[in-house]
Specification:
Blueprint lengths: L4 H22 L7 H6 L14 H16 L4 H11 L8 H11 L20 H4 L2 H6 L4 H12 L6 H18 L9 H12 L4 H15 L6 H8 L9 H11 L3 H9 L5 H16 L6 H4 L9 H21 L1
Helix pairs in contact: 1-3, 1-14, 1-15, 1-17, 3-4, 3-17, 4-5, 8-9, 9-10, 9-13, 9-15, 10-11, 11-13, 13-14, 13-15, 14-15
Length: about 325
């Protein structure tokens, strides 16, 4: 399917802002169990300025680097992380140590094993990867390689890397679908299975469970989703949940974010990943304006994120016009 440039630009903005929204609205629920998260769900209707966390911070930095480099360049991404990442935004200790090491001059390919000898299998590489899904949406094999390359800076464990692959590919597949047409959930599961073939068994099992749940045609209760797919900071216990929720709840962005938050656990990251996928499908124009108005708009806030998404699309379009 071929979408117009204006349509695609809107989808790029939808994914970046969708991540921002999910992260900012989900951050107040982090660490809650599902029951407590659902009890506090009315907090989403309260209006105040909502700030993003490390999830969006790294997403913006990754997008900036990709614009400058015309794609994924780990050395340049590492430089961007060290220059712009704000370590006061809820970073995990492992990522803080990695970024401080980059600032101190350590090579990008040396920092990933600073905290975990065998590498991290957390969801940090997946939470930031939506710009890769956007930029390589028409080249899924290139997308897979790029997702791993950007992950390698902080996550060399296969579970961390393939979580980034799964999230990036789901974003890419969502970009390629016309939001005016029925969402091909079953086909997306099939496509993801093909892309993730040969990866860790944990993701194969998760896709099997997602396929089974999608086939039943109902929206499962949050407790069941946590039981089957997880809600933790580990990539294999959060990315599958985000993908399932995005498949089942789009095109209703708010409903998808509420479903993500209702899982409890790592709510900002799971909601951010869900937001990126659904936003990539429906585009900026179908995101909730009353939620967007509440996003922080400082030096690297809402206006910056919108402009960055435009520039990311322009960088992608420039390559495709000349190829």
């Amino acid at each position: 399917m071929s979408l117009s440039p204006d349509f695609l630009r809107d989808k790029f903005k939808g994914a970046i802002l969708g991540c921002f929204l999910g992260d900012a609205f989900g951050s107040g629920f982090e660490g809650m169990d599902p029951e407590k998260a659902r009890f506090h769900m009315d907090d989403l209707s309260k209006k105040f300025t909502r700030s993003y966390t490390d999830d969006t911070d790294m997403t913006l930095a990754l997008a900036e680097s990709m614009i400058q480099s015309g794609g994924v360049n780990p050395e340049d991404i590492s430089k961007q992380f060290s220059l712009t990442c704000d370590l006061t935004r809820g970073y995990a200790i492992g990522t803080i140590k990695a970024i401080l090491a980059l600032k101190a001059g350590m090579k990008w390919y040396e920092v990933a094993r600073i905290v975990f000898k065998d590498g991290s299998f957390g969801n940090g590489a997946a939470m930031r990867v939506s710009p890769v899904g956007l930029f390589y949406h028409d080249d899924l094999e290139g997308l897979r390689r790029a997702a791993v390359e950007q992950a390698n800076i902080t996550h060399v464990h296969p579970l961390g890397q393939w979580g980034a692959v799964m999230q990036a590919c789901t974003v890419g597949l969502a970009v390629s679908q016309d939001p005016e047409e029925p969402f091909r959930k079953e086909q997306m599961v099939t496509d993801l299975r093909e892309i993730l073939w040969g990866g860790p068994i944990e993701y194969v099992k998760a896709l099997n469970k997602i396929e089974e749940m999608v086939a039943q045609g109902k929206k499962f209760h949050s407790r069941e989703i946590v039981q089957h797919l997880g809600n933790g900071v580990e990539a294999h216990l959060s990315v599958p949940s985000a993908c399932y929720l995005a498949l089942m709840h789009r095109p209703d962005f708010c409903d998808a974010i509420r479903a993500a938050i209702s899982l409890g656990g790592d709510t900002d990251t799971i909601a951010g990943m869900v937001g990126a996928i659904v936003g990539a499908h429906v585009g900026e124009k179908k995101l909730p304006a009353e939620w967007i108005e509440q996003l922080e708009d400082g030096a690297r806030g809402l206006s910056f994120a919108k402009n960055l998404a435009d520039r990311l699309f322009e960088a992608w379009w420039k390559i495709h016009q000349t190829s």
